[in-house]
Structures
1.
Amino acid sequence: MAEHGGGAGCCPPMDLFRSEPMHLVQVIIPIESARLTVSYLGDIGLIQFKDLNAEKSPFQRTYAGQIKRCGELARKLRLFKDQMSKADVTPSAKSEAKTDCNLDDLEVNLGELEAELTEINANSEKLQRGYNELVEYKLVLQKAGEFFKAAERSAAAQQRELSSHQTGEESLETPLLKDQEPTADQSKQVKLGFLTGLVPKGKAMAFERILFRATRGNVFLRQASVEEAVIDPSSGEKVEKNVFVVFFSGERAKSKILKICEAFGANRYSFPEDLSKQAQMITEVSGRLSELKTTIDTGLLHRGNLLETIGKQYEQWNDLVRKEKSIYHTLNMLSIDVTKKCLVGEGWSPIFATQQIQDALQKATIDSKSQVGAIFQVLHTKELPPTYFRTNKFTDSFQTIVDAYGVAKYQEANPGVYTVVTFPFLFAVMFGDWGHGICILLATLYLIFREKKYSSQKLGDIMEMTFGGRYVILLMSLFSIYTGLIYNEFFSVPFELFSPSAYACRDAACSEATTIGLIKVRDTYPFGVDPAWHGSRSELPFLNSLKMKMSILLGVAQMNLGIILSFFNALHFRNAVNIWFQFIPQMIFLNGLFGYLSLLIIVKWCTGSKADLYHVMIYMFLSPTDDLGENQLFPNQKTIQLVLLLLSLIAVPWMLLPKPFILKAQHNRTHQGESYTALQGTEDSLQVEAGHDPHDHEEFEFSEVFVHQLIHTIEFVLGAVSNTASYLRLWALSLAHSELSTVFYEKVLLLAWGYNNVIILFVGIIVFIFATVGVLLVMETLSAFLHALRLHWVEFQNKFYEGDGYKFAPFSFALLGNEEE
């Protein structure tokens, strides 16, 4: 690999056509400066380390303990973040000022904060539980007290009624009977027990049913619903509940009731038998509730202040932990020397970054006060380097479109350079309407003006995708305005923007729906389609012919560009076989047929001929020697057609046969030469090997190479036809967009306008806006985007783009972003 220094400035001009020249470097770092060195290299972010300990498990590596330690710190930070989100505390934005905080101090600090926060949470939870229990207890005292008071009033009323009944009916026999009966009843009197508590309202009916069945009806249950939902002390959730009082007789019944209460999650509370104490207890509970409320509020305030303190430094701590963890992950990829005094690392870096890396190594040696400096050296290898394109926020989204198909092979021609223009242009050919283009432009400008805000926010999937491709959509909208002006369509309505129409009516009887009565009275309309064509009988035949031929011209031009790029690839990799036996025959075959068709289209446009191009192309194959007659567009056309047809036929075996035999001869010659080569020095042999093709030492299978070339030839020959036909989608989607736009305008907006009714007009405008936005600005945009994507991936890139490389993934703190642990 030819080396050229990166000394001419740290950032040479951006070149997207070929990936950055890379080399494999080796870094030998003393143990005492290893962490600081890797940290400085992470700041630069221009070296991709190779894992030299791939055979070891994560637990066997040198710095496994430090990674575990960082993981524990990250766990504590996640705990803090969770607590802050629950308390609606937003972490402060990252401050530019760097704080001198090392991992040891942070570990102690986070440990203390976690212990304090855990203790506050435990105390708060305990107090809150006690508070909720007291709230429920107060409700039980109030509701159950009402039961007993009502019962007491009822008993007193009955007693008074009985007393009055007895005094009114006194006789000689009555005292004898009545004096003895109460005495007998009091001796046999059974004392009833009772339990009070709260049960969830949803379980109240089932609770009552189970109590009745378990005690065979030997209980008396009273329930009263609580007006507002209360917080359950066990779960901490708001639940609607009923207060219950259940009366029973005997210990067996009591034990059954207790089990049922436990099963239904009913909270039981003691209730004083002496009703006189009830008011006193309610007063005591209210006093304790107010005390607990004050204590809880003080605790929450203290917790909020603690979380605010954490939030001020959370982002800095989080960055520090993430950086430290990534540093130790990288150190684990380095192999330790046998003396255990230094670490050896290998990785890929761009050649222009050499000086920056060396400066970082030197700085780390000085700052760590190491007596031995790090050693930096370039290694020679046959391994394929990673692909690295330096993009900016404008070109990045276009490069992403290409990378979604496949990452470019190292130093391969990058289609992303041309995609910046061709992708939005082909989209606009299908979407051409300058009214719709302005709508998309305004939406995109809004995203661009607010990009600072949105780039720092977490967006939804669709919004994030749209925001990421904002500059692609910007160019798509600008090109749509351009093609819309060419098609002369503003929401399907034509305008005389650049001059009056070149056509006018011959007389007053001329109908606006036909071009038969129109005559040309002025110069040709200067830019785009003359507005007179719109609404005429010949509008569709004219526009269909125009757009179909234009699609073929654009398709052939782009496919030719793809084949020309394959020539530059072959030239760059010094592959003469591909130039002579792939590029040249492909150019002859494509242009001998479809390049010739494009020429005929242009000649027909220029001369105004009425020749039938379908007839010309069909009979070029079926009867190449027949006279063309009225379909002849220029002199000696028949001879030229015969020559082109013959060259196209020759191009097929030219692509198929020579290349496999030449590759076999090259392989044999290479290996025959190697058999008699003298031994060389180690360094020279490494350099010789680095210049060889990585497939030189593999077994050459002629049959495989021949079959591969056969498939490639068939694919290209058939693809030349199918790919050209595929570009007709430009015509089809453009026609569909135009017709849909016309339907919405005429059948919705104009129809509503014709009723002379404000309500109908208002509804019509609303329907037109929603139809335009939903169908034309969203669905049609997505459809045209996908079709443009297919034309680039399949029809354009398959002519030259292998896309079997792998991305340059450097160790960089800037790329850590907001990765989840």
Note: The chain has a mean pLDDT of 86.
2.
Amino acid sequence: MAEGVRHSTMDLFRSEPMQLARVIIPVESAHRVISYLGELGLFQFKDLNTEKSPFQRTYANQIKRCEEMARKLRFFKDQMQKAGFISSTKPTHASEIILDELEVKLGEQESELIEMNANSEKLQRAHNELLEYKLVLKKAGEVFNSAQRSATTQQREHEHRRVERSLDSPLLLEQEITDLSKQVKLGYVSGLIQRDKSMAFERILFRATRGNVFLKQYSIEEPVIDPVSEHKVEKNVFIVFHSGERAKNKVLKICDAFGANRYPFTDDIGKQIQMVKEVTGKLSELKTTIDVGRHHWKSVVQSISHQYEQWNNLVKKEKSIYYTLNMLSFDVTKKCLVAEGWCPVFATNQIQKALMKATIDSNSQVGAIFEILNSKESPPTYFRTNKFTNSFQEIVNAYGVAKYQEANPGVFTVVTFPFLFAVMFGDWGHGICLFLATLYLILREKSYSSQKLGDIMEMAFGGRYVIIMMSIFSIYTGFIYNEFFSVPYDLFGQSAYDCRDPSCRDATTMGLIKVRETYPFGVDPVWHGTRSELPFLNSVKMKMSILIGVAQMNLGIILSYFNAKFFRNDIDTWYQFIPQMIFLNSLFGYLSVLIIVKWCTGSQADLYHVMIYMFLSPLEDLEDNQLIFGQKYLQIMLLILALVAVPWMLIPKPFLLKKQHEERHRGRAYQPLHSHDDSGERESNNGGHEEFEFSEVLVHQLIHTIEFVLGSVSNTASYLRLWALSLAHSELSSVFYEKVLVLSWGYNSVTIFIIGIIVFIFATVGVLLIMETLSAFLHALRLHWVEFQNKFYQGDGYKFSPFSFALISDIEE
């Protein structure tokens, strides 16, 4: 009990103490027990039925029912999207609904919607067909009316000519009358065809009938909705005149092959008018019917949208409950289910209360039994984080989940990650822009957390607290660098330097003189724009990068000591931590001390010369490069310590591990007799004695030693990226300011200046606030993963994944 109280506070340095527990649950209260544990979200179930397929498990039918209901809910969601409704997230005041009632209700709603959709499709198709029919009647009517007017005119002219003819030709007149009576009446087929198929349609008709048809086509200005595809398509009205049944059959088959919609037509004008009236009336009736049906369909979908979230959550919960029940071992004789899993030690009382509540609520006569098991299996890793620390912990987890109760770098990452970013991004103007943008995301986090954002926006929103810390540290380092969009300001007082005379003629040749106290905070603004600005800042930032790198690498080695102490591994303490500290600080710790001494004393010593000849000629006198008394002998001693530290890391540890392994298994052959199970365990343990491979351990230690020795050099050099990216960011910012903003101001033109401001804003946002932010973020990530975490962090654990209803929404169907 006391242990549970002790671990009740959130501790990020070590993962929560975990325990393997067994829960024996009566069948009648099993569903409620799993439900209450899901609401608690602090128990990770183990699958005790791994040998069974999903279809052989006890609750397979219930999962099938839940999947069928989930399918119906997805159908409802599609209907809601078509109607433009969003599922209501407000809590409904309706009574709690059970799964069986919901299953029936979902089936009824689905049947009703399917029937309504089918009726609506039929009505809409009939409506679209009538619209096309109306267009055919209109266009074809114009063709026939025009043809009849032309025929009437020709007939009048023919009669007039016949009257004027001579009465001496009765035989020719009789022959003409006979020819007119022998004229063949042509048939015709009318309809609509897609415009992109009209040319091919015309060619096929000509070839199939050998030119014995006459085709007339008229384009429709606006696209029409096709009754079959229900999409808007550009179409043409066509009329095909043919002679004989054989030609007619060919025309009909070609129309069907091209997907043309055929509609009947008459050449009688009276009947045409009647047909147009009938079609118009039917269109009006169908439109009214469709509108009424659409309104009813929307009301049904809207009622579903009000309860969709409640139904969806219930189905997801029930499916997850039955999925979890299938992981439990079913004991037929005792009528109970046996569950095993991991839970935090502090959650013991909460789990027991949940089990007791489930027993009471289910009216079970027998309560669930909770017992702690002993296990040699490595427990899962669980850190209790909040929305602020979670983002930093995810940065660490992306490299690897911490081993159980291993020192967690996430505690230090909260500070070191944004600080290293800010060293490369130092500009308080850019930091303020980044801060304001991230602050907007934080203020709107309630609305954004319930919305579906894009990939990039989702990433930025998820890391909003990391970014705001990065921006705050960037403002701080920007004050140190004294850069506001690359422009310095004397915010903390006047510059310490001034010209030798009021005219400042010799400022660029003789330099400035110090007339005041040193600038109190950050870089003196007078350095900006001078010839010595770049060498000065290069020197400062390069040395600062080495100091930061050595400090962080020392922190990583110190954390390896805390790991060794926590796990009571004295071998790692004496033969890994101590020689690593000696080796690193004999070389680069010494370099850091020289840098600080040079800054404090103002010495002109060449540190490059000191470090190079420390290895090449350690016995030579330092002369002008001596910074401290007895430096020559100190360097010889540090060099010897560094050389001794290498075999210290390499040789003793494999032999000590072998000795430790032999002592652990000594005397196993002379143990007292136990049960059959114990003997089996003993045999497996004795078999483990033979698995120790000294050569493998020695090779592994050799690789580890070489990696550390070479890594100490390469990792220190890797921290120089802080200097390089800081310089690049500063120079880019200066170029954008001087070559865009200042240059456009010099033209004395408002238009050019406005264009310059626009270009400056886009360049600053696109390059410095987006690309440079991403670049500095990735480099800070690398420094933490490789240079810092490889000193102590194994990251070979696995994450605690409890059964929790709060995490159901993140699980994909």
Note: Residues 1-9, 171-181, 669-689 have pLDDT under 50 and may be disordered.
3.
Amino acid sequence: MSSSTSSSRYKFPFMAYDIQEQLMDAMYSALDQKKVAIVESPTGTGKSLSIICATIQWIQDFHTNELKRLTRQLQTLNKEIERLDADSKVSSDWIELQDKKSMVCRQKEVIVKQLNAFDVKNQRNKALVDRRSNSLVRHSLVLKHKNVSKKLRTDTNCGDELSACDNETDEDFVDYCSDEEVMDEKVSAEESETFVRPKIYYASRTHSQLSQFIREIQRTTYSRGDTPLRAVPLGSRNNYCINDRVLRLNNNHLINEKCIELQNSSNSQTKCQFFKKSVMNELKDEVLADVLDIEDINKLGKGVKACPYYSTRLAIPEAEIVIMPYNVLLHSPTRQSYGIDLVDSVVVVDEAHNLMETIHNIHSIELKGSHVMDALTQLNAYLARYKTRLSARNAMHIKQIVFILNVFSKHFKTSAQNDCQSVCERVEFLIRLGIENLNLFQILDYCQKSQIARKLFGFSKRQQSVANDIKPDKAVNGTTAFLAKMKAKSIELQSIASNTSTPEEEVKVYGSPLYLIQEFLRALVNSNSNAKIITKYDKNSIRECCVKYILLNPFSQFKDIVSECRSVVLCGGTMKPFDEYIDHLFTPLGITSDRLLTFSCGHVIPDSHLLAVALGMGPNGKTLNYTFQNRTNNSMIEETGKTVVNMCAVIPDGIVCFFPSYELEDIYYKSWQKCGIIKSIESKGKTVFREPRKASMVHTILSDYNRAITGTNNRGALLLCVVGGKMSEGINFSDHLGRGVIVVGLPYANKQSLELTQKMQYLDSLKPNAGNVFYENLCLKAVNQSIGRAIRHKNDFAVIILLDNRYTNRQNIRQNLPDWIRARLLCVDSFPKAFSSIRQFFHNKQK
């Protein structure tokens, strides 16, 4: 059903469906009534476009109504002043009347100031509209290439990563003396009368999702109106930097520190050529004049030679909509560094199904024995090299860091020797280590302002190069001998992996292990009482021991956002159960039911476009039950394989099959290869692809998968994926790419995990059985995200198959599936019945 009023009120670019109209109404009401809202709209129902139209229409209406209100108030106050003047002429109590008049005049001054701000804003809008129409730079650099897809920056040669640091220089030498010597990185945007309030702060998980949101704004008439829509996309330096000297470092930590160093340099030859306030203000105006994405802004920045990163930050005070990744919104220090003021504003968090996990991950950090040992090696070599040049204060701070690292090393050795894992509070951990009396704040301040981690990285890289040049048969001593010893131990000084990885896994790279150590110490000085420190040992290698700081209560980090904003809206395609967000995020913050608003809608597709099947039995009559004890049985693996082969015979085009983990997918694939299942699948015309562990390979695999389906003489493909993996979120398997989605089992987390155990115990302390509810929800939310990869628009159709008899037998599991899937769910324990239903579904689609 479509609504005839959609395009008129909300300027929806198409004739909106009823559920889209309902979603826009719910969003508008939440913002207008200062509500905290949880909104669920299935993927493929136009959720983003509905959010955009509702929020922009509300903010425009708000400013219009606010202007009318202030104008009426001014008229009322002027009449009151006239009355008081008239009364004072005839009344004997003129002193009291003058006091009243003074009070009314002060009220009038406030109103006049607010009205003047509207006038300034209108004049500013006229200038921005004129710039949008007449900017030659923007027309030549952006509009001309609007339909051309390019990289955000030119490729750099990894071999040149540190070409600026090939020879030893005093860049590595710490010469920090006082807090005042290093400029703060923050560029303070002027809080002028042009400051726009309230703002809409929109946050999502990835930059690709943010770019998609901007493209959706560009589809609406709001982006092309007589009044410019001031939308500013924020990003990291890694996204926005256009200085090749900085980008070649290819590491976020190093890029950040190098950027700060270059902008503060007093040497005109080394100072960043793009950090010029006048041209940055020009670029800021270009950003405000039109709705641009990161790629557009980078092109403009290169054209006018202005820094896009700081230009977008300068634009924040005047912006109406600020578009940002999760980490900027959810991390208070980052938010403050950007100058983001949430007071009386609106926050919209999209893809919020993983919000609590994201908050947990942002504020948790793991420190491994390898990080500690490598940092110790680097610092000792650094002290040996510069001991005669370091000031007493610098030497003292570095020795304090070395002392802390030695304490951590001893802690790992003790844990490994005692064969124990431990969990303790933050203060208890500091006491165990014996560093409770150290001023960690002062040490962290020194690390930040001296940039010791970046300098240590450069020093270690060069020293490693020296060690590599040492001939084995040459007699060496002193520092050279020490460096040769470093090489012999094969210590990797350039990059430190954040976790143990196989050759197929992605390796997370840090410029120096000292960055991680700083982050861990920063977490330790956090006064949050609802956090734990977990120590895990490895008897075979101290380098594999680790300590992890974990946050147990997400609401503590969400408190400022909820308390400062006029309204907070959490949106997603799979948000149920709502109680999880209410109990863990809002109720602890004092949000009562009268301020809460929840909304959920169905899908735009007709019932005939989806068949959902919960199947508990395979083609040979074996029960499909993927508990930990059963899932690796050879008979279960073979029965699953035969089930998939049968599905490949009746489901056309592309099928996506999700496993609970990479390990289980690997076991099944290798077993299927040995027993001939893979050949049977290929005999049905399906080419088999596997989700890669390297993120860099995802695009290649998806392209090959697409070609196998759409290419000449190809009948389709089967893609083996992982729940919670790289293809379970943000990937569009629409139409022929996802005619079938199969989920093998239930991806329950390891209940023996110390981290999960602590989380569940904490939740149980707040509410009985809350830990188990959280455990179940964690699993089903991951399933819901995976099955949401199919059915991406109103004309799409697909079959969803849930393999496990727990789907058929347990009502609590089915209850947590999305409403639009549960309403169409067929629970069967008979394979022939399921097979027949699926075959008939696609037969009907061919008519």
Note: Residues 200-343 form one domain.
4.
Amino acid sequence: MASRSSVNFLDLASGGLLDIPHTPRGLPRVMTVPGIISDLDGYGNNDEDSDVSSSSSRERKIIVANMLPLHAKRDAESGKWCFSLDEDSLLLHLKDGFSSESEFIYVGSLKVDIDPSEQEEVAQKLEDFNCVPTFLPHDLQKKFYLGFCKQQLWPLFHYMLPMCPDHGDRFDRLLWQAYVSANKLFADKVMEVINPDDDYVWVHDYHLMVLPTFLRKRFNRIKLGFFLHSPFPSSEIYRTLPVRDEILRGLLNCDLIGFHTFDYARHFLSCCSRMLGLDYESKRGHIGLDYFGRTVYIKILPVGVHMGRLESVLDLPSTSAKVRELQKQFDGKSVILGIDDMDIFKGISLKLLALEHLLQLHTKMQGHIVLVQIVNPARSSGKDVQEARRETYLTAKRINEVYGSPDYEPVILIDRHVPRYEKSAYYAIADCCIVNAVRDGMNLVPYKYIVCRQGTPTLDAAIGRYAESPRTSMLVVSEFIGCSPSLSGAIRVNPWDIEAVAEALHLAVCLSDSEKQLRHEKHYRYVSTHDVAYWARSFAQDLERACHDHYSKRCWGIGWGLGFRVVSLSPSFRRLSSDHIVSAYKRTNRRAIFLDYDGTVVPETSIIKSPSPEVIDILKTLCSDPKNTVFIVSGRGRKTLSDWLAPCEMLGIAAEHGYFIRWSKTSDWETSHPGADLEWIRIVEPVMKLYTEATDGSSIETKESALVWQYQDADPDFGSCQAKEMLDHLENVLANEPAVVKRGQHIVEVKPQGVTKGLVAEKVLLQMVNSGRPPDFVMCVGDDRSDEDMFESILNTLSSHSLPVPPEIFACTVGRKPSKAKYYLDDAVDVVKMLKGLADATNSKPRYLAQNQVSFESAV
């Protein structure tokens, strides 16, 4: 039974789940063919021919975020809406990473409610800012942002589980439906302006994690990147989300996914492995996930600050005046600065407790150290925020009462709007900056502090500081924030360890100026070279690289609703049509047929591994035709295969990847390597036992010629880690032995050198050629890596011999995935249907062939 989350949410907004008016539609902004304006509405399942082509030659970047980088207010006299750019917005700052010729279009919602009667007028006004507004109905906006985003995703991504109603809201499917509906409306707006052949789309943050699915469904080859500005939780936390798969698949419909730190990326990759069964690998320094033939790349790079913006504020006269005022106010005191939003994850109360412990432990610091805590307005309201505010005020009051005096307050709490120039002044005079968040995505406060401590020539002149004077700074940062790994000179702390944070603050204040200078210089070099322009430019370059082969492959969409994904494969790779292969089968007389077993004629997921009666009947029919040479080529042992396939007397069997070969039931088993030295088994067995004992869920399969370590039932991450370690271990101990170590899907196998399925195919084909019966029809079907050897061997063997008539070759893999085969079938069920078509062709007279054939339509 399908889960409720698998409902086709692509039609959600127009269905009865939420009453959402159709998005107002002005003139389309894209001409896909000269003189013809294309209607981009709709969500049909598109193959590569349905992607809209455009005559536009200018490359643009479409930036999609929850909020547009705009300020909005009504004019007091006219009552009309007025807009201005938000100069502090990251979305505007990232433009500095590109040339002035680059064009940017912003898609997002406004921070104010716009009456439906004014929306068309506002949309026209925003064209002057290159902004395309997404107008969400008030009720939808509330459920989407304040509901699902802030009450469910945001706490979960910050490691807060709703264990009881008093600690967060539990999953609400209506809020999830609102989230999906809102994402669809954002996608509608992108589709109004996109030139899908040329434009790059860059989606930002957790508000829009299923939007890529809508865009990928409409344009299979869209150039699409996503950057997550929040933490991504570990799989143990993330897996509690009921719609976990839908969100993962939404992100995987991008070409590039960006994270601030390797920890966040590692958690995402672990979730993909544990929940979707996807493996990743490093490709020339870039981490890539193979997702149905598409490579989804992972980018790890923390965002930076806008150096010019910060320095321009430092140059303001108001900043210089404030710096002089603060220097006078705190003369003779060491200033520790904290700037945080008021929420439960910023650790403000923990910071105050650490200061209290410091003053209690180091009494000489009393009267000489001040913590200035600036509290930014809370981004959301709720009981948690109110409790955090109350605790902060009570703690600050207690510290000031116990350790303060009429002319000294150890804690100065600034809980109001603080202008940028004033914040910059506090940064500039602070001896130490502390960021004590218990969980945070990036947090640029330390970067801003470093830049402001460096100062500018204008600020130096205004406050009477020599330009050559050494600059110092000290940072105490939580190890749970995104910027921590890039600040190697900072003192990293566990914010929950009050005593350790107190000692870190004491150390930061008491360090020598020379050490503070060295740490500052190191940090400033990094911050100034890894600014927001560098971050944006690097992401865009990687996105271009990730999309460079979009048009070298065939694409088509599969899956329903939010499970939609695009399969991307070689242009020559196509589905095997039964009409085509049966036709070739009928007109040929010397046929070679090679079949893998597990995953090919028997489903990989089947609990019963023995062949079904239908499979036995089909194989018997094929083998009974004197024109056919049929082989089952498997990694299984010869006893198991001979027992299961005993009714098929004329069937050839290659067991243990070809180490043992039997041409028919009445013939003897041959060994591909007679007299092979298998003494290495004594070396391998104890090593595998060691790893089996240490890896719960793993086991050893003992064959006559090989040993296989299986970890399919082990923890995915631990099993994979152990497999890599075992591979290295065994390669070392078997360096001088006639054995090879291979890693497959959830297995590590050790077998004799020179034993492959490819050699089986080569031996059979050469036998047919040398006996004067060169094949004119060759079919090989398999599903895993070992079968790729057969596909390659067949092509090499037949191309290296001059045959009277070039044979018709059908190399077919099971599943749509990259392969050396030219054809594919979806699963073992399709393979059996195809084989039945061949068996029917063997038994039937020509005039009855048509009704017995099984038709497989091409995917294109």
Note: Residues 341 and 798 are 70 Å apart (CA to CA).
